[in-house]
Design a protein that fits this description.
The protein is mainly α. It contains nine helices and no strands.
Length: 179
């Protein structure tokens, strides 16, 4: 029996390469019957919505690595978080280009990244980050670096490990991190 997770993983890969792919194409790529995919996702929109929610949930899972204390090794912790996010690139590429956001998805996104935003705010309040950057900018700049890295990984320009290190180093330098 194929798991839902496998269907969503295959769908993300297929849709990242062929945004117009049909449910039949996705079923063929997953090695399952048309009936199996249609029973789980009656329409392409249902599959895309499930893919979007699952992707944001996976981002939220990675964000559980965000420490609750600024006493921890900030660079190592940020690298671990970033490394956990690297495999989600193909999913985010499709979603950024082809999914209309709605209030429910926006709420999931905000919930997923809130721990990181709070952590950055606490780091700033403790004097370990530049004081002249708005809190929202700190979070948005990190997420922007993620998207840039995911694009570079997808194009084959850099690997996941290097991308995670580049994001971490670039963000910490730009944010004026003082260990």
């Amino acid at each position: 029996m194929i798991k839902n997770e496998r269907i969503l993983d295959v769908a993300a890969e297929v849709l990242a390469r062929r945004p117009d792919a049909t449910l039949q194409t996705i079923a063929d790529s997953a090695g399952i019957s048309r009936t199996t995919i249609f029973n789980r996702y009656p329409t392409r929109s249902d599959l895309i919505e499930a893919l979007a929610i699952d992707t944001v949930a996976r981002i939220g899972e990675a964000m559980k690595r965000v420490p609750t204390s600024v006493e921890a090794d900030v660079e190592a912790d940020l690298l671990a978080i970033t490394d956990a996010l690297m495999p989600l690139g193909s999913r985010t590429i499709f979603l950024r280009l082809h999914v209309d956001t709605n209030d429910a998805l926006d709420a999931h996104w905000i919930e997923a990244v809130t721990p990181l935003a709070i952590y950055f705010s606490v780091l700033k309040a403790s004097g370990r980050l530049r004081q002249d950057h708005p809190d929202r900018w700190l979070t948005a700049s990190y997420i922007g670096l993620l998207f840039a890295a995911w694009d570079e990984i997808e194009s084959g320009e850099i690997g996941r490990v290097r991308a995670a290190r580049l994001i971490t180093q670039t963000w910490l330098t730009g944010a004026g991190y003082s260990g």
